[in-house]
Amino acid sequence: MKNFKLTMLASLVMAGASWGTVINGSSLQTILNNITNDGSSSVDVNTDQVSQDKYWALTASGTSAATMIIEVAGYATSNTFGLYDLANPSNKVTLFSGVATDGDQAAVSIKASGAVYVNFVNTGVVFSSTNFGYFLSGPGGTFYSDDALNPGGLDHMVSYQGEGDIVTLPGLYSGTWTPNEYVLAWEDVAYGDNDFDDMVVMVESVQPVPEPTTLGLMGLGLLGMGLMARRKKA
User: Fold this and answer.
1) With contact defined as beta carbons under 8 Å apart, do 138 and 79 qualify?
2) Mean of the pLDDT values across residues 226-230?
3) What is the CATH number of domain 22-51+53-209?
4) Predicted TM-score of the model (pTM)
5) Which of 19, 17, 23 is nearest to 186 (CA)?
6) What is the pLDDT of residues 150-203, one digit of tens each?
7) Stretch (H or E) spanning 220
8) Cα(109)–Cα(164) distance, rounded to whole angstroms?
9) 80 near 136, Cβ under 8 Å?
């Protein structure tokens, strides 16, 4: 029985990587198709979601750029988008406010001290580590990349990694959507319509990191499989 339980735990952990959020309608897919130069994105919004996208870290450059692709929400003039501290979700830094428009950009860096800079200016906010989450806040509520912090534990952000398409973002030259660039698509109302087209942003020089709980479960699952293999050899 113990072996069965450990096997089930390992299977659940591994299967979790394939779970995704159902995207209603075709609006988000159309947005990705529209920024793709040949009009057809290699990314499928339902099958190509990044599975581990709750928390993120900057890559070696230490600075990440965020580019607004589109915001079509009714709350567009009020929504704010930014980063929050993994250890304290109320500790936030805003990258885009309600006055932001398609094509606007912001640069964020986190120093070794935890000091957060936006557009190379010290915000006065200090994070506990270089790991962070993304948030969207407005009249519809405040929502986090970590779905456990959202009403009902529902996903309000889906993300997609570049697959080499040539894309053109608003106001910018065409370029390759590389694997170190991700599109973040948001739903900005609790229990909303789940079309995830309310705000769409591309972020670069970042990478998703497993959340601590997931790492622990994976460790237990792998340990269970190891114990089973050892028992079979015996």
Assistant:
1) yes
2) 46
3) 2.60.120.400
4) 0.84
5) 23
6) 999 999 999 999 999 999 999 999 999 999 999 999 999 999 899 999 999 999
7) helix 212-233
8) 25
9) yes
